[in-house]
Specification:
- By secondary structure, the protein is an alpha/beta fold.
- The protein has 2 domains: about 140 residues, 3-Layer(aba) Sandwich (Rossmann fold); about 220 residues, Glycerate kinase, domain 2 (Alpha-Beta Complex).
- The protein is built from 14 helices and 13 strands.
- The strands form 3 sheets. Strands 3-4-5-6-9-10 form a 6-stranded mixed beta sheet, sandwiched between helices. The chain has a 5-stranded parallel beta sheet with strand order 2-1-11-12-13, with helices on both faces. A two-stranded antiparallel sheet has the order 7-8.
- Helix 1 packs across helix 14.
Amino acid sequence: MKIVLAPDKFKGALTGNEFCNAATEGIKKAMPLAEIIRLPLADGGDGTIEILKDHLQGELIKVTIHDPLFRPIEASYLWLEAKKTAFIEMAEASGMKLLRKEEQNCCKTTTYGTGEFILKAIEKGAETIILGIGGSATNDCGIGMATALGYRFLDEKNQEVKPIGENLCKIHQIDTTLVHPKLATINIQIACDVTNPLYGKNGAAYIYGPQKGASENDVKLLDKGLQNIANIIQKQFHIDAQNIEGSGAAGGMGAGTTVFLQGKLTSGIELVKELLAFDTQIQNADWIITGEGKLDNQTFSGKTIIGVIESAKKEDIPVAVFCGATDLTISEQEALGVAYVNAITKSPCTLEEAMEHSYKNLAYSVYNFIKVLGYGKNK
């Protein structure tokens, strides 16, 4: 029996590789001769570099850049020499994880460090740059990133503004005369699974601003700023930033990367699957085992499991999902299109206890699933 392991991480409990280790233990105890293909996945956000590095023999390039509050930090991007491709996680430069709770205020934060990442990759000789834009601490529509690449954002007095969220309202025009000359020659793909517009009640500031430390008044200011930059972009570049699908992702980075980098917004999981040749590797599998921390209605919105299910359907391969918890109904599970779902928690416990025991609980649950499939025989 050929079994493909293609999980997302259990956030805070298991990495994709740890999931594969636990599942492999369970499979081998129930079916020692099973063929196991390990393909842990990610959706372009946190953890994607680790997944791609393991599969593609990439090199981590350490550089000095600036964090969301303009402080120098060391961070790494993934370099694939054979493909002249750089994979950058925005969260490594401009992420919430870099700030203490009291520092989180997306009026004051910048994507400048993400732009520095891109600049370093250009100087390395990148022909393709893949940018994952999850986990950001920012709401600056990418003006910080663009500033690092030579764009200048000017106020009514022709003075350059500091590229942070609260200054979007002050921008009067965009100077492109010093933009890096190689930027237009590079294929830039943006891993993005969010479809929010740039501004408005479903836009970047209103939906994500409060999670990034914005008060009610801050949200109004940021939204006004996003409208302002959208109007300037329309006037200067003839691009309707508001109606780019996903323009509101990562505090407006969906729009910023499209306009300032000429980047293409693409599903993060689809990008990762393409890089891993996922659809080819799963051919002739008997089962695909996948999983994530919680299986719920959010699972339907374009994340890793959906990407796995879509590929499995093409090859008519049944999918088993192992998760920490699930609140799906039978009809929702059928709509999801999976053959089997198992919440691995064995007895009533706290969240902390469930996370602590997730490895052994997963191994046990997979063991029992495989034992039923093969009746414990060496298949």
